[in-house]
Amino acid sequence: MNYNELVKLLHENSDEKYNRFNAAIVNSSVPTMGVRLPTVRKIAKSVTVDEALSYPVHEHLEVDAIVGIVLSSAKLPFEEKSALLTKFAQTIENWSVCDCNTVKVPKAERKQYFQFFKSMLPSAMPFVCRYGVVNLLANYLDDEYINAVFDSLQTIVTYGHYYVDMAVAWLV
Fold first, then answer.
1. Which terminus of the chain has a lower count of CB atoms within 10 Å, N or C?
2. pTM value?
């Protein structure tokens, strides 16, 4: 689906009342369209990785979310997917796009992804750090990793940033 088709489809599924509500709670400079997350997720299923990578960043919050959903759910080798996720994480500028894009980590790649998400925690970019935290929260709060997750929190350099602190609070 090209960008113009995507934007048209999103507009067709927008709700002005929800848009006002969402814009107020997301605290983003990126314009919102008012499309609810279940619909955004459904639309994302019809977008390919190549299409997602062609979309402009920060024109619409819902498009940014779709890019993240597509990349986070893509069935790609770890090296390729982690490179794409690294670039994506650096574009995140709000909690909504960050939190709706957790990766479902394959069992065979748990160690690699743990190191990958852990490596995001010392980032000076708060939403890169938050992306690492929410993915650790979604995938690693089990007996095997819980101590390593808590140890990794010591590497965070953006404590004091509200959205980092809140993600860590949810994790602990």
1. C
2. 0.95
